[in-house]
Amino acid sequence: MDKEEVISRIIKKKEFSQLPKKDVEKVLEKFERREIDDEDKVKLSRALLKKIFTSFMGRKIMNPKSKDARWFLLRHVSTKERFDYYSELYERLLEDFKEKEISILDLGSGINGVSYCFFPKNKKINYVGVEAVGQLVNVMNFYFKENKINGIAISKSLFELEEIKKIIKKLKKPRIVFLFKVLDSLEMLKGDYSKEFLKEIVPLADKVVVSFATKSFFKREKFKVNRKWFFDFCRENFHILDNFEFPGENYLVLKKRES
Ligand SMILES: C[S@@+](CC[C@H](N)C(=O)[O-])C[C@H]1O[C@@H](n2cnc3c(N)ncnc32)[C@H](O)[C@@H]1O
């Protein structure tokens, strides 16, 4: 099989059928040079795609349906964990904005846009979610339309950096960018991509919120990961506005350094 055929075999599986080609290519690149047959490349690529893109949620989320926010949020590992403290989290992230209208760009959003009802009621939030899994994008857009929410979800790979920058630049200021539990996935496919990515994104936003899981996804145990390199990088390059932990998640709030 040539590369294109291997890719079309990989995405024959429904859960990967709506991923941006760029992400599927990046995953296949990991195995392309191995001396294994094409079927094994397909198998290994699918296993890695699952780990990065689709392992966080129950299958039931994958299709648009008329359910309330709670139904969706409890069916995805990340949003379920945040469910009890969303209001407190959003209050803390948005309280220092004096403006009534705020743009939020949620990168690698999963279905986090469904938590729109937890944004402070005294603000007008323009929400844009960017997510690789097309099915989740459809679910969010369906939910926004049904509930007349000022939000939109876009299907795109975060490896398309120039496209992501274009999306940010179009947003009305002030702009806040969320990168909740997504940088580890990017690092799995391209080492040090978080650094390259943040250097380009942070100057375009008023605030960038990065979060990391502090509990392992499958075992639900506290786990220790050495993120010293990441914190050192942030200290050297940005202004750190806030650093706090809620159950299962550590948040770091970054801003461009004033020169
Ligand atoms: C652990 S989930 C977190 C979802 C959401 N940010 C939250 O915390 O509720 C990671 C999400 O990032 C998405 N993702 C991973 N790599 C991506 C990429 N290269 N481009 C776009 N989305 C990506 C995955 O599909 C998945 O929905």
Question: Which tags fit this structure?
Answer:
11 helices; globular; 19% strand; Rossmann fold; 259 residues; alpha/beta; seven-stranded mixed beta sheet; 2 domains; binds S-adenosylmethionine
Give an account of the 3D structure:
It is a single chain. This protein has eleven helices and seven strands. It folds into two domains: 3-54; 59-256, Vaccinia Virus protein VP39 (Rossmann fold), CATH 3.40.50. It is globular, with a radius of gyration of 18 Å. The chain has helices at 3-10, 21-32, 38-54, 69-73, 77-82, 86-94, 134-146, 161-170, 183-189, 193-201, 228-237, and strands spanning 101-107, 124-131, 151-155, 175-180, 207-213, 238-246, 249-256. The protein has a seven-stranded mixed beta sheet with strand order 3-2-1-4-5-7-6. It has 259 residues and is an alpha/beta fold. α1 (3-10) packs across α3 (38-54). α7 links the parallel β2 and β3 (151-155). Residues 23, 52-53, 56, 78-79, 108-110, 112, 131-133, 157-159, 180-182, 185-186 line the site of S-adenosylmethionine.
